[in-house]
Amino acid sequence: MKRRRLAFLACMVWIVLGLNFLAVAEPATGPWDLDALAAVPEVEWVDSTGPVRGLYYTGKPYRDKPTRVFAYYALPEFRKGPVPAMVLVHGGGGKAFKEWAELWARAGYAAIAMDLAGRGPDGEPLPDGGPDQTHKQKFDDITGGVKNAWPYHAVANVLRAVSLIRSFDAVDAERVGITGISWGGYLTCIVSGLDKRLKAAVPVYGCGFLHENSAWLDTFAKLSPADKQAWVENFDPSTYLPGCAMPILFVNGTNDFAYPLDSYRKSYRLVTGPRTLCVTVEMPHGHPQGWAPPEIMVFADSVLRKGRPVPRFESLTRTGRSVVGTYRSRTPVKGAQLHYTTDRNTWNKRKWHSVDADTERNTVRATLPDAEVSAYFLTVADQRGMIASSEHEELGR
């Protein structure tokens, strides 16, 4: 009898622990009504025909007033049946880039590129547009409540763009991905953890942990403790990346001025789905530079069109100065490199050195130099030139 009682108590303990685990593991949804944002917004077409059409769709009310969002919608010139689609999210100083939508349409995708600064096709503020994306709207306006801040409206309007493009007859609603640049990459990180309808994500530059290390530390220092806490809890991607289970490709440079490698690594380690990294030495920061890497489209093709994927590192180990990385690649690899720095100043000011590494049977081997290395990582390039990187390791911290 005593044994049965102990067994029963042990069982109840495991049940309680399991329920607590499920409660902790439940993905965050933040201040957004995801069910409402999954509804198709009302649309007003600017262009009735053509491969690239302008449109307005209904945004979230801003300061108790209705809003509209301008966007470009592009379709491939030749298509048979519904096509995959990409949602294109611009960054700071950006707009609804027509040429970005056209780029994806030429590759066989439908695409929607929306404006997230309350502006129209001419770049002028709309009388019924949402908030601009200055530092004030991004950060300071949280003092009036989270629904007054730019991130709240930007995320909501991206989610509505997903709902809209999935509703079009020309689009395969089960093959929709997202990519964003800089602040658009930041938004992509949030949306990838919120929207289970998406099947692939590519944040470029953007990441989370902005309050710990980013270009906006001085801005956070000026917020009150309560406003800073509210911003981080509601708007930092670190809150939502644990909910990202879709395949995701993180693209960045070693010396990015806004999104440093330490915050970057903490961010991509949060995702629960398969992740691929493409960190390159001194990648420039900008919109054309952010949509230029060919790995972005190849990655999207691999998920949405069953194409051949970008290589992906699976492990990185070190014994003394000997470094070993293992990777997976369906395309033969033509080379590998070790990248290292001996600097210990801020990430965007470090000088990186690159040397060739040896590859054999999906393994990269390299030897760190005699110099005191502060950080290093590996890359491989396949025969198409697609680059994948390992995580970086910091030494002697």
Textual characterization of the structure:
By secondary structure, the protein is of the alpha/beta class. The protein has 2 domains: 34-308, Rossmann fold (3-Layer(aba) Sandwich); 313-394, Immunoglobulin-like (Sandwich). Helix content is 28%, strand content 27%. It is built from 11 helices and 17 strands. The protein has helices at 2-25, 34-37, 98-106, 135-138, 150-167, 183-194, 217-222, 225-235, 261-268, 287-291, 294-304; strands at 43-45, 52-58, 68-74, 83-89, 110-114, 171-181, 200-204, 248-253, 275-280, 312-319, 322-328, 333-341, 352-359, 363-367, 375-382, 387-389, 393-394. The protein has a 9-stranded mixed β-sheet, sandwiched between helices. Strands 10, 11, 12, 13, 14, 15, 16 and 17 form an 8-stranded antiparallel β-sheet that branches. Strand 10 and strand 11 (322-328) form a beta hairpin. The longest helix is centred in the N-terminal third of the chain and has 24 residues, at 2-25. The radius of gyration is 22 Å and the shape is globular. Mean pLDDT is 93; it is low at 1-24.
